[in-house]
Amino acid sequence: MCIDILQSVAKGIGKESYRRAVLEILGDPRLSFTEAKPLIELCQAPAAPRKHHFFTGGLVVHTVSTALIARKLVEIFRELYGVNVDEDLVVAGALLHDIFKFYQYTSDAVSGGYRARDDWYLSHDYAVVAELARRGAPDELIRVVSEAHGLAPFSTLEGLIVHLADSADARFGEFIQGALLSKLRDVEKEGCSVYKALDELVKKKGLKTAVQLMLQSIDKLVEEAKKLCKLQTE
């Protein structure tokens, strides 16, 4: 399901070489240059445990949001600054920038959620550059992904835009997540971790529903989370 969401965005990329590079990785999201295997699936992964989008599926939410924000930034910068920006390259870079983060994480049996793997040795930003090069992706796409993570100095507007979109969504996601966590503190009285409560709420109801509940009725938000906590502890 989550791969379908990413693929639907990727299929909107006009330039065939960029579209093919993204869809190839989404169709087979593995690192071919190492024998190391992921301990969780891409669709399970958070974007950053205990940081932004720490919940199950957070990586996909962050990736899609980054791509959509980046696309809008292209539109705005073209309109207001008159710059020539390759939207296809921007969207491709946004979809790929964090794609191998799931290799870095494992389930946390103690506190719930996820944590960094003890045995992992390769940061995801280097991993995606290496994998793109190994698969023969276009050089300009590799450059944009490198710039988005600060591995190379900004020399393209496309790399800068992906970087800005990534930062914007990470900051916004962290803010929304923090607001949800602060409203869910009461679930700890039920013996449920507030982090686990939010993770279960997002898994069962979806992030959008969780945010809407918070905005409409904090009592309903807490009540729903408590129900899910009880189901987990029974």
Secondary-structure map with pairings?
Elements lengths: L1 H9 L5 H12 L30 H24 L5 H10 L8 E3 L6 E3 L7 H11 L4 H10 L8 H27 L10 H12 L1 H10 L1 H16 L1
Antiparallel strand pairs: 1-2
Helix pairs in contact: 1-2, 1-3, 2-4, 3-4, 3-7, 4-6, 4-7, 5-6, 6-7, 8-9, 8-10, 9-10
Strand content is: under 5%
Looking at the overall shape, the CATH architecture of the largest domain is: Orthogonal Bundle
Give the CATH level 1 class of the largest domain.
Answer: Mainly Alpha
What's the shape? Answer: globular
Radius of gyration: 19 Å
> Which structural class best describes the helix and strand composition?
mainly alpha
Question: Helical element count?
Answer: 10
Low-confidence stretches: none
How many domain regions?
A: 2
What order do the helices and strands follow? HHHHEEHHHHHH
Looking at the structure, the CATH topology of the largest domain is: Hypothetical protein af1432
The separation of the N and C termini measures 28 Å
Helix share of residues?
55-70%
Describe the structure.
- This is HDIG domain-containing protein.
- Pfam families: HD (PF01966).
- InterPro entries: HD/PDEase_dom, HD_domain, HDIG_dom.
- Residues 55-180 form the HD/PDEase domain.
- With 234 residues, the chain is mainly α.
- The chain has two domains: 2-174, Orthogonal Bundle (Hypothetical protein af1432); 184-233, no CATH class.
- The chain is 60% helix and 3% strand.
- The chain has helices at residues 2-10, 16-27, 58-81, 87-96, 124-134, 139-148, 157-183, 194-205, 207-216, 218-233; strands spanning 105-107, 114-116.
- It has a two-stranded antiparallel sheet.
- Helix 2 runs parallel beside helix 4 (87-96) and helix 9 (207-216) packs across helix 10 (218-233).
- The mean pLDDT is 92.
